[in-house]
Amino acid sequence: xxxxxxxxxxxxxxxxxxxxxxxxxxxxxxGAEIFVVMTRSAQEFVTPLTxxxxxxxxxxxxxxxxxxxxxxxxxxxxxxxxxxxxxPATANVIGKVAAGIADDLLTTTLMATKASVLFVPAMNVNMxxxxxxRQNEEKLSALGYHFLEPVTGALAxxxxxxxxxxxxxxxxxxxxxxxxxxxxxxxxxxxxxxxxREELDPVRFLSNYSSGxxxxxxxRAARNRGARVILIAGPTCLNPPxxxxxxxVVSALQMRDAAMAWMEDASIVIKAAAVADYRPVTSSREKxxxxxxxxxxxxxxxxxxxxxxxxxxKGERILVGFAAETEDLLExxxxxxxxxxxxxxxxxxxxxxxxxFDVDTNIVRLLYRDGAVEDLPxxxxxxxxxxxxxxxxxxxxxxxxx
Length: 402
Ligand code: PMT
Hints:
Low-confidence stretches: none
Shape: elongated
CATH superfamily of the largest domain: CoaB-like
Radius of gyration: 25 Å
CATH topology of the largest domain: Rossmann fold
Number of domains: 2
Mean pLDDT: 93
CATH architecture of the largest domain: 3-Layer(aba) Sandwich
Bound molecules: ligand PMT
Number of strands: 21
Oligomer: single chain
């Protein structure tokens, strides 16, 4: 989504300036072209050389030296931006922009740009709460500038509170969203992700290797394409993508209840979760002691098939399932497509290296109701997510513009 996009990254003077380096790396990895503008104070924290080396472009620091160029530097920077991100943004720079002051390269370029601007403030909690700062942010928000709020934590100044720069990944995702093609605007996408856990006693459970990566990638991609996203996930180590409505569940029964409840709102349902097909008939309230028996037999009962239940009430919604197979991939996946009343099923052979559980890539085959099969090569889970959403967008009559 960021491939070929031009992003101007403004870096202000704050201890969080070092995190802008990580942000730059994420942008570059995604194929964006980055032009860094640093304030004088920012250069006290990180050298321009660091940003120059990692971006492959000269770093801009001085308003006047740029006049020596053929183009007027700040205007050329302002014009070429598809997106302008200021991270970290200080109270000083935000205050200047709010007051219409343009007295250095960064504020002048910000004044001249017609691109969307994302400010990512980082500062002391008392500065963040100061009514003067609050007024400035409100004024700029009302004028269409975007803000990604700081997070709460231990601040470099010794205070505890709101003021930390968000994780670079969160800033990256916000940028993707701002640059996104909102072809799924107006849609509500319900995604399930991750494993379920079926409790045997307070310390043991039956589960599987799902990491949630596939489902979270779909949620992130749908959100970046303008959809309202409801993500229901079993236990994972992943942070929910920002801007999605997140519901954590543990067991298949909880996932079923959540999915049925949120189904009402959804126009598209994608079930990437790996739901345990069985749960123990009884779950002990106390930890089962090994001294009591030499052998142990656990009786399992079937969990509800959530996707099949959704298929019975799907109405006009698009319903997409996944099939995790270890043999007869196409045959088994097609059976699920038909029996669960799906519009599309994403079949992955989870025995293949680079596919399935707990890896960053997947190798999938898309099976459609009319019998068509589309084979995809090994791709990142983000890429698989976007291709899947491309196909769903077509089904909804919303072809994606490139
Ligand atoms: O989470 P990752 O580590 O990124 O791994 C991704 C994945 C391998 C989990 C994913 O790509 C995937 O294949 N998800 C489906 C796993 C699965 O449970 O497959 P299945 O063939 O057993 O189930 C078929 C479909 O029915 C799935 O959409 C599943 O969500 C659904 N189902 C299954 C059983 C059940 N009781 N209720 C269900 O809704």
